[in-house]
Amino acid sequence: MIIKEDNSKVTILLSKKSISFFKDQSKKSGVPYQSMIKKVLDLYADKFAHK
C-alpha cells in the first residue's frame, strides 16, 4: 500500500544555477527535477525538525 502525502502547491524563486543543476541531474536519472527538489527539501526538513 502506498500512503499519499498531503501536499501543497507553492511558488518559489530559485537561482538559475540550482534549476540547471536539478535539470541536468533529472536528465541523467530520469527522475523529474521538481520531484528531486521536493525530496531534498523534505529530507532537510526531516533532519532539522527533530532537533
TrEMBL record:
It comes from the Bacteria. This is Toxin-antitoxin system antitoxin subunit.
